[in-house]
Amino acid sequence: MHPQISADVCGFCILKGTHMSTLLKVTNLTIEVAHRRLFENLNFELPANALTCITGENGVGKTTLVKHLLRDLDLNYTSHTTCHLKRSQVQYVPQLRNIDDDYPLSIRSFVQLGFKYHFWPWLNQAMKVKLEQVLAETNLTKIANQPLGHASGGEKQRAYLAQALCADPSLLILDEATASLDRSSKHELLKLLKQIMADRNLTILFITHDPELIAAYADYELNLDNHTATVTKKG
Ligand SMILES: Nc1ncnc2c1ncn2[C@@H]1O[C@H](COP(=O)(O)OP(=O)(O)OP(=O)(O)O)[C@@H](O)[C@H]1O
């Protein structure tokens, strides 16, 4: 069964005086974790084809909210969440990965793990072409044969991004992707993300605590505070 499409989801809505198309709509969502209520009657809409930063204090529930939305997508939606995407169109790049120096894969081999529907345990010609395109798109071509364990923090983040892009997502969710990067690498990654978003007509959700990045790159901010969510247009 395909997810239901409501008129609201496919149409346009008014957000603080601007028109935006809505990708995902959440209505009266309450989330409890370990008998603790994180959110109560949450209501918000996420804009399509834009970069939305999800912000809020440590422990407010940013990651939990995203995981809940992904679970709803897995279930083909609940009465609280409507969206016209299938789970397979969404890629989530998690916050922490333990890639040590001895990690046995090259950057290219790691990135190609992102291909779906592997019928054979090797890539077909079309996948090989696409792999090289994704490596070029994420500025990894020159270092693609190097071990991922030897890559810098910024290069590793680009490799995680490239792996996610192999699945041709419509919605990309990154959880604190810049947390361990220096200032120039953070800006490099965000500029790259915005370029990829424009080229691929993607929607990006980016969990971050970084006010400088929010000010410079966010099209919208979804702020979680005091059990509620507020979406504002930035820039
Ligand atoms: N499976 C779980 N069992 C119990 N508590 C949980 C579970 N998952 C999350 N929590 C708790 O829910 C709260 C929200 O966690 P979450 O990771 O979503 O916050 P966050 O806003 O993403 O935090 P941060 O900015 O520090 O990454 C935290 O207090 C966390 O300890």
UniProtKB/TrEMBL annotation:
Domain of life: Bacteria
Stretch forming the signal peptide: none
InterPro entries attached to this UniProt entry: AAA+_ATPase, ABC_transporter-like_ATP-bd, Metal_Ion_Import_ABC, P-loop_NTPase
The protein's name: ABC transporter, ATP-binding protein
GO molecular function: ATP binding; ATP hydrolysis activity
Positions of the ABC transporter domain: 24-233
Family per record: Belongs to the ABC transporter superfamily.
Alphabetized UniProt keyword annotations: ATP-binding, Nucleotide-binding, Transport
